[in-house]
Specification:
alpha/beta
Length: 287
Amino acid sequence: MLFLTARVEHSAEQVFKIKQLRQLVEKCDELRVGTEDTLLTKFLHYAHWDTIKAYQAIHAYYDFKRRHPTWVARHPIEHYRQIFYGTHCRYVMPHVDRNGRVLVVFKTVDGFQNYPDYLQNLVEIDDLIFESLLLLPRVQENGITVICDLQGTTRNFLRQFSPSFMKVVNEKNGVLPFSQRVVHIIQRGFLMHITSTLFMPFMNKEFKERVCILDPNLNELILTFLFLKIFTHDGRHLSKLREMVGYECLPAEYGGPASNVLDTNLIFNHLTQNAKYLENLQHYEKL
């Protein structure tokens, strides 16, 4: 099952590291967070089971939250129902990709006229989705694959992408505790080079030095930074996407099986089933 959250059997060494990290967190007067296994293991996987690095990653994440409190979810799950079902712009697929990563689909859908604070709500929704996926042992271990379909991007979106906004996007990417993130961006027309145009000026030097053009003829770009890889694809040529992600798990509209229909219910039901924990997580903080 995709959303399997059964208790994981850890090795003796892993159990020791979980206990060690729990003691570090409990002794810290600044951290007001839980010490449940789910929280600790997501940071341990992210840090390749290095206890000190995991502890530092916890601090980095909650430092970010303290500096940017509006960049995390702040409302009950039901608060977001209308946007989920009114825009149909966030999905998770029922099958993992060819590398065992859960496959998420984000679409740009212009809802600015219908929903006040639309972009703010999307920021919070994405935070909820990421936190809910990090509850899954397979995500903690393998990470996620994201298809980011920008083909619906309008000028209303572009107006929101200020330098300050993009800098915070970059900063949050640096603290999300995924062991691996592979992002496939689908774009076409005047958006073909929007990724590099918008993001590159705000990336740090290490990020920029890891940029590599894979195939100029296919308009594919890969950006690699720590645990994040970004590929771009021309919306008219998706054969490379099928090759990299896997045919069986892809949505039908991106060249997968006809039965793979995007369904908002799958991700929203997962959120509601874990609402109590996710809403409690919103109160975790660093003083």
